[in-house]
Amino acid sequence: MIKFFHKVGSMNAPVTDSEKLIWRVLEAERPNISQVHEKSLFEANNSVLEKHKDSLMHRAAFVEILHILDSNRKSEAVKFIEETTNNTVPRNGALGPIREWKLKDCIAVHNLLETVLADQDAALRWKVRCADYFPYSTYFEGKHSSASPNSAFNQLRKNSENESVNHITSNGKLEAFKDLTI
Predict the structure, then answer these.
(1) Residue bearing the bigger pLDDT, 98 or 137
(2) How many CA atoms lie within 13 A of 56 on its CB side?
């Protein structure tokens, strides 16, 4: 809604009768729209954030709108994202700690930093940070992902290219697996 009203507010003044009618309807209905009421767009953006300040995606949406409304506040927007914490959530029987952030959300924030805010340094810092949270992610090139040069997958591939690994040929016999432990 904030994007919409920002776009409408930045349009040229209505010229035709139909454009004038549309503007009058929008202005008449704006106070009734729950997110905006009679607030400025900055106030509406802050209000939404206050309700969802611990949510990564709401913080990202806040930053995107902040950048749209005032592109001069880019460094503040980047700092706001980078100060977000990935809290642990209740385990519900799972082994080990569970973090709040989801991989798809972290990818969306990375895209926001890289494309919308166009801050390559911040995007790289975010990528490194998320690689720690998602070590198997090929997107973030986590230390255990196949995209990482030092991953087990790539080490095996390099070793097989150098012919330094004894290969077990598939001959239908299971003898090669007798010493396998899990």
Answers:
(1) 137
(2) 20
Distance CA 180, CA 182 (A): 7
- Tell me the HSE value of 65 on the side-chain side, using a 13 A CA sphere: 22
Does the pTM of the predicted model rise above 0.70?
no
Helix axes 103-111, 56-69, angle to 10 degrees: 10
Instruction: Give the C-alpha separation, 155 to 112, whole Å.
Output: 33
Backbone angles phi, psi at 139, to 5 degrees: -60, -45
Asked if 1 and 39 count as a contact pair (C-beta separation under 8 A), the reply is no
Residue 176's Cβ-side half-sphere holds a number of Cα atoms within 13 Å equal to 8
In this predicted model, which residue has the larger pLDDT, 23 or 72? 72
As a whole number of angstroms, the distance between CA 68 and CA 143 comes to: 35
Q: What is the mean pLDDT of the chain?
A: 78
Q: Is the pLDDT of residue 165 over 80?
A: no
Residue type, 136: Y
User: Helix or strand or coil: residue 55?
Assistant: coil
Kindly state the average pLDDT of the residues 167-175: 56
Cα(176)–Cα(79) distance, integer angstroms: 55
* Per-residue model confidence (pLDDT) at position 121: 94
Beta pairing partners, 98? 89
Distance CA 79, CA 96 (A): 30
Q: What's the CA gap between 159 and 45, in Å, rounded?
A: 54
